[in-house]
Amino acid sequence: MSTRSPRLSKSRFVAGLQCQKRLWLDVHRRDLAEAPGPATQRIFDSGHEVGELAHKEFSGGVLIDPPPYEIERALRETDEAIAAGAEVLFEAAFMYDNIFIRVDVLRRNDNGTWDLIEVKSTTKASDTHVADVAVQKYVLQGLGYIVRTAAVMHLNRECRYPDLSNLFVIEPVDDRVSEMWQELQPRVGEFNRLLLQDAAPEIPIGKHCTDPYSCPFIEHCWADVKHPSIFTIPRISKKRIDSLIGQGVTGIVDVPDTFKLSENQRRYVDLFKDGQRQIMWPAISDAFSELDYPLFFLDFETQADPIPRHYGLRPHDQFPFQYSLHILYQDGTLEHTEYLHPDTTDPRRPLMESLIRDLGESGSIVAYNATFEQRVIRDLARIFPEHRRRLNRFLPRFWDLLDIFRNCYFDPSFGGSNSIKKVLPVLVPELSYAALEVQSGDVAQLAWKEMISTADRSKRLELERSLKEYCKLDTLAMVELYRVLAGLLAE
Ligand code: SF4
């Protein structure tokens, strides 16, 4: 345990609202936390980028720039800047009631009051953001500052590139802060006492482990959870999860037969208890009869930037930068084609032109979760009206392979998931994602960003190869799953 006197902060306070054990572990056993994954890393990176851009909206702001660990210097420089009459401060540092905060933007009003503004890279102010603002207001008011407005400055979904003049919205959240004001002081006291304890509080796992955020201590706290776990039961409520955990049940196979579940949930639980596959061959046969050769197995990789950089995009809009396409002919011939955008220009037109050439006029387009691929095509049709009719003709040709594993083919070996990465090793064990450097869509996004920006030619070639391998495997996996199912159907 650390010998330094532990302090609260904005993020620790919010962690404590999710789970007090998380707060304690965050302070005393950081070593037990999982390293941030690529998705979390992208959120951090975009947060920095958005924060810097937000500062440009306030002219003449003074940046308090000591790093997070130089607390005393940050406090001193904040005092000096305020005493010198700064109108706007960025990252101003304050400490009160053992809570240390850095305020994203603090703006002085003519009457001596202050506006407190928290910058977020999302497109709305969530309850967690409001809690974050509330604790900052608590500190400032405790120090004698009068906060006129407490607000969240977030991205505006109405903004479209190239006009970024309305990129941000400053949304006052005073009413929402007031709603939680009463419980703030007792919570701060409770959390400060908790930090002085020698051991983590005994808090059972539950839905709060993933809501509102996935907790970094899941691996530690869930070590004894049986797999597949009760958390994979479709649409199970927090109340039922808590009730099962209260009975010491974490694995699906241990759910009592008398435990109240919906019909769907009970069917799911029974699948694991029986340990047998359930396959509805007539339904699969019907679905396969809808397919027209040649079969086009299609997968897109997309990027979503908080700050849009290409025509017509809004904050966080997805756009495609890569696709892989396997074409299976009725005689069994298989062809592969692909597109990977090579640079920082807008990928959509060349990708779309390549796609129109490759998809031809007829034949089913097979995707795994086809609504995603269809959405990408609809977005392309909106941006390129001259190709709208051609692109829209692709939509009714889609056929969703995921529907087979969602509705007709259940196997306990899938571990309660119907993701292609879980289904593939069971039905096609010779194909695997394990050896690939890029193994998920999140990593593919990071890899593509690096590929188009690096000046290192060999690095660029390596990333290009990894991205092509990954996307190609996604469509080859569909081909092989289709072949396995078709073979079994034929038997
Ligand atoms: S995994 Fe769950 S119980 Fe453990 S610290 Fe996180 S939220 Fe709390």
Write the CATH fold name of the largest domain.
Nucleotidyltransferase, domain 5
Assigned CATH architecture of the largest domain: 2-Layer Sandwich
Strand tally: 14
Bound molecules: iron/sulfur cluster
Describe this structure in words.
The structure is a single chain. By secondary structure, this protein is of the alpha/beta class. The protein folds into three domains: 8-195, Lambda Exonuclease, Chain A; 224-274; 284-490, Ribonuclease H-like superfamily/Ribonuclease H (Nucleotidyltransferase, domain 5, 2-Layer Sandwich), CATH 3.30.420.10. Helix content is 43%, strand content 16%. The protein is built from 17 helices and 14 strands. It has helices spanning 10-18, 20-28, 38-55, 71-83, 127-142, 174-195, 218-221, 238-246, 263-274, 281-288, 348-359, 370-383, 388-392, 402-407, 420-427, 441-453, 457-490; strands at 8-9, 62-63, 88-96, 99-108, 114-119, 147-155, 168-172, 278-279, 295-304, 318-328, 334-340, 365-367, 398-400, 409-410. Strands 1, 2, 3, 4, 5, 6 and 7 form a seven-stranded mixed sheet that branches. Strand 3 (88-96) and strand 4 (99-108) form a beta hairpin. Helix 1 crosses helix 2, helix 5 crosses helix 6 and helix 16 runs antiparallel to helix 17 (457-490). The radius of gyration is 27 Å and the shape is globular. The protein starts with 7 loop residues before the first strand and ends with a helix. The mean pLDDT is 93. The structure holds iron/sulfur cluster. Residues 19, 21-22, 25, 203, 205, 208-209, 215, 217-218, 221 line the site of iron/sulfur cluster (SF4).
